[in-house]
Amino acid sequence: MRIGFIGLGTMGEPMAARLLDAGHAVTVHNRTRAREEPLAARGAGRAATPREAARAAEVLCTMVSDTPDVEAVLFGEDGAAAGLEPGAVVLEMSTIGPEAVRSMHARLAEQHVSLLDAPVSGGSEGAQQGTLSIMVGGEEAALERVRPLLEVLGKTVTYVGPSGAGQVAKAMNQVIVAGTYAAVAEGLALGLAAGIDVEAAHRAVSGGAAGSWGLTNRGPNMLRNTYPLGFRVRLHRKDLGIALDTAAALGVPLPVAAYVAQLETGLIKRGFGDEDVSAIARVVREQAGLES
Q: What pTM, to 2 d.p., does this model score?
């Protein structure tokens, strides 16, 4: 397939690379143009603008930071919408608000272009290994057309409903991640404060009912108090903002997510916004008196 791919950050670059390695004709664009060079060296085309990336693309993937970025990529000056042909499919894989997605969906439908909101979960490891979980909202017929592409990127591709539903599912995911990481941080802090062999205890609880992806993959970082990037604190805080706004509109209280949002806001103010989300443990360790 002819694919345009816009956004080559921590997640986007390995995703575009997997599509390229699978034999698709991929044209890439990134705001910081130098990020295109490694993929170009592997055979990707380069586009100077989003519009150019979309021209002749059967599928356009966008993986950028926030709603204004998606709006600019699609509908701004030299935006991709102006380059898309009728019948094309846009895979909006960023995490943005459900209402924004529905608005974009309606605008693109006027030019006979389908938009699927297809946010992902699984971190940079999942993007590199092709094991992401992809939650999709929009028309099922459009999903079936692009499913082979999504199966290159993800271990699970799940249709969750009409336009915007994918973003609601991603909001659910980020709320659960928030609570899980906070609970892992608190549990490990308890073991550290008690002075037990906490690495052995970590292995023990990982095999029981407390076992989770976060405990297995991020627990060791929390024990070392080092937080190499998997998914940035500042982006997770943005995602929690979407979840909290969505929940408020529906009258759903999210006290745990609100608490974690406060922790992340503090981390960002202290300069830790580009660390992995598991840096929540920094605050928990400090509150427990484990850091001088």
A: 0.94
In the chain the domains, ranked by start, together with CATH numbers, are 2-161 (3.40.50.720), 168-287 (1.10.1040.10)
> What are the E-state strand segments in 74-193?
89-92, 114-117, 120-121, 132-137, 154-161
For 66, the enclosing helix (H) or strand (E) is none
Q: Residues 229, 272: contact at Cβ < 8 Å?
A: no
Q: At what angle do helices 198-206 and 213-224 cross, to 10 degrees?
A: 170
CA distances from 59 to 90, 172, 174, 193 (A): 6, 27, 27, 52
Q: Which of 155, 170, 238, 269 is catalytic?
A: 170
pLDDT tens digits, residue range 158-181?
999 999 999 999 999 999 999 999
* 3-state SS record for 178-213: HHHHHHHHHHHHHHHHHCCCHHHHHHHHHCCCCCCH
Q: Burial level of 34, CB count in 10 A (0-12/13-18/19+)?
A: exposed
- The average pLDDT across 8-30 equals 97
Q: Active-site residue 155, yes or no? A: no
Strands 120-121 and 114-117 turn out to be: unpaired
Alpha-carbon span 274 to 218, nearest angstrom: 16
